[in-house]
Amino acid sequence: MTRDSRGKYLSPHLVRTTSESLTGAGFSVITLTRVSKDYPPRGLALEEVSLHIGKGEMAFLTGHSGSGKSTTLRLIHMAEKPSAGEVRVSGFSSQLVSGRDIWKLRRRVGCVFQDFQLLPGRTAMENVAFALEVTGNRRGEILPKASRLLAKVGLSAKSGALVHELSGGEQQRVAVARALANEPLVLLADEPTGNLDERASRGIMELFKELNAQGMTVLMATHDLDMIRKYPRVRVLELNEGRLAYDSAAVAEPN
Question: Would residue 162 count as lying in a domain?
Fold first, then answer.
């Protein structure tokens, strides 16, 4: 049997994944193996992309517009399947997962979007409560849990405010609270600061850092190079015309 770095035996299910990549953050929770995505007649959005993101790791996914960032996130969320290759997320394989089981993956993966996608005419509390309701939480648990989630993102004082009464940064914090409704292992963020000013962007980034420090895997797509430079310890994955052009973790590995 195979042992891990601490000398413990690994089950056969884990041997292939861990032999592929043992990052400093731990076992890979996201693995793309020679993944391509074709959108005829436009052509390939991703081509032969392979990468591993460890449990509890944080990484930026960057690249020019059209480089494949959003496509990569959709494949990781399994909103779409690759044209070739395999995506593995928290034990689920794109080659094996069925439509009936996809909800199980979605409970492990939270998503935050650039345009917030909040319910208009509802309060911050109602937006988070709705997410808890549709994911099957018991009625008596919904409001207390929504309150805890809003407190976690620093919005307790604005829980009763309507969405249009909140600033952009506050709306994005509500979106993050909603994404945390299922206590996911992975948080995917697609240009979450794209519509925010510098101060609000910094606040959202610090929130992601706090969540990551608590053990959550965070993958954030962004083209904001200034933000990336402000966090030099965060891993950077760069896509260029659908291919993985740069991985700061690979550059940092010793020869």
Answer: no
Say whether the peptide bond before residue 41 is cis (omega within 30 degrees of 0): yes
Q: Which residue, among 10, 7, 5, 35, has the nearest Cα to 22 in the 3D structure?
A: 5
Residue 10 has pLDDT above 60, yes or no: no
**How does residue 253 score in pLDDT terms, banded at 50, 70 and 90?**
low
Report pTM: 0.85
DSSP strand E in 144-234: where?
186-190, 217-221
* Bridge partners for 190 per DSSP: 113, 221
Instruction: With a cut of 60, say whether residue 24 has pLDDT above it.
Output: no
Contact assessment for residue 180 and residue 128, using Cβ atoms and an 8 Å cutoff: no
Q: Is residue 64 part of a domain?
A: yes
CATH number of the domain where residue 98 is located: 3.40.50.300
Residue 87 structural domain: 21-108+184-252
The residue among 57, 85, 84, 62 whose CA lies nearest residue 73 is 62
Using left for φ > 0, alpha for ψ between -120 and 50, and beta otherwise, residue 187 falls in beta
Taking CA atoms, 240 is separated from 45, 49, 62, 196, 211, in Å, by 10, 11, 9, 25, 28
